[in-house]
Amino acid sequence: MLHTFRIFICSPQNTKNPISYNTPAESLFHTSLVNSPFVTQNPNEAHLFFVLFPSDFSTRSIARLVRDLRMELPYWNRTLGADHFYMSCAGIGYESDRNLVELKKNSIQISCFPTPYGKFIPHKDITLPPFNPLPHSLPQAPVNKTATFLGYFRSYGDRGDGESQSSLVNDLSGDPEFVIGSNASDQLTHMVRLASSKFCLFFYAVDVSGIGDALRFGCVPVVITEGPIQDLPFLDVIRWSEIAVFVGTGRGAKELKHVLERTCKDGYERMRGLGMKASQHWVWNESPQPYDAFHTVLFQLWSRRHAIRYARREWV
């Protein structure tokens, strides 16, 4: 991949200003890609085509962009966009316009994690891991650590936690084996709690941006969700069942504690160690490094380059 993978960027001709995005992860991916050797100026060398548009592009503008690609270049029509990819943090829904239908159904979508319900197609789409705000210069947790708490939960009271989360948090707050923090906690306190807890709790519907931090500090993520999660980052790379615990929202504090205690007896240290190794894939660097988030996203794109095969030829 590092030596042969090539991407051609298709950008809107009427965009004079630099492409702008709403999230740091999108901006870092775009900046890293355009400054990388993976980009080619010769479309005949490309394995994939990046349909480039800013976050504030309307669906009508995106449809017009795809229409122009169809009319002005031969590459879209030969696969109906299956060898193209685009980036949209919130994802694109199902629209009636033919151009948007082909973009949504055929092209690879790169969206933010988690992606809104109904805007992610598991067999082809990819999610970006959230940008990690913690300083990367800090060391990881030691391989063999003595945890003070069984579980740690960082509450986001300003994000509409919901009845199920509030009930669970209230039940856990009185248990000395659990520590409940708030979003207002300073970063140092947050890191200490990550490093001193066996498990870190996340509600999928509220906030899962801290999963990468938890993995890095040796705190096994526990994701509380209403159903199966199809948009986890790096599903082609990471065996999530080996590094995280997934439980339903209907479980109460007693049942949750039983699950965690059982996990402690059944290979917890292996799960923790694999998670710490996997945490490198969640790190965004201004200058990309091997196995970081940028390269892992590219690997997922590279693995999809032969989803649709076509005869290579020169186009005039």
UniProtKB/TrEMBL annotation:
Residue stretches making up the Exostosin GT47 domain: 24-261
Highest taxon, organism lineage: Eukaryota
A GO cellular component entry from the record: Golgi membrane
Subcellular location: Golgi apparatus membrane
Keywords per UniProt: Glycosyltransferase, Golgi apparatus, Signal-anchor, Transferase, Transmembrane
GO-annotated molecular function: glycosyltransferase activity
InterPro entries xrefs: Exostosin, Exostosin_GT47
Pfam family, one: Exostosin_GT47
Membrane topology (UniProt): Single-pass type II membrane protein
Family recorded in the similarity comment: Belongs to the glycosyltransferase 47 family.
Name of the protein in its database record: Exostosin GT47 domain-containing protein
Organism: Vitis vinifera (Grape)
